[in-house]
Design brief:
Layout: E1 2-7, E2 11-18, E3 29-33, E4 42-46, E5 49-53, H1 72-82, H2 86-99, E6 104-112, H3 117-126
Length: 127
């Protein structure tokens, strides 16, 4: 799903709600394809920010910090440093296995309206 919102200064914020988790750093580049605007082209844009919606536990819970790490070794070291019980560690790993593939990412671009496709995109956001 894509959400387009008009911003002041003839720009728009385009947010892609992706069905799975990806690791994208702000400043990296993506090619965006908007078939209702220009079905024949993809356009390169810089990523403004990415928000991985990965929390399966409340953000106040100590294991929420694990969502920032990816491999088991790092998770174990973090768990040891947080002083979590073995039961808390086991509970987190079970949640990861059950829900790991359901994690989503929102990827946002800020696009200035120029000519052509970016102008059409901005005009669509205004409508």
């Amino acid at each position: 799903m894509v959400v387009i919102k008009a911003l002041p200064g003839e720009a728009c914020k385009v947010t892609f709600h992706l069905p799975h988790r990806i690791n994208v750093k702000p400043g990296s580049h993506v090619y965006a394809f908007f078939p209702t605007i220009a079905w024949w082209m993809s356009h390169p844009f810089s990523v403004a920010w990415a928000d991985p919606s990965t929390c399966v536990t409340p953000s106040s819970h100590p294991t929420a910090a694990w969502n920032e790490t990816y491999n088991t070794y790092e998770r174990k070291n973090l768990a040891d440093n947080l002083g979590l019980t073995d039961l808390e560690k086991q509970d987190y790993m079970i949640n990861e296995l059950r829900h790991g593939n359901n994690q989503k990412t929102s990827l946002s671009l800020v696009i200035a309206a120029r000519t052509g496709m970016t102008r059409k995109l901005y005009n669509k956001a205004l409508a």
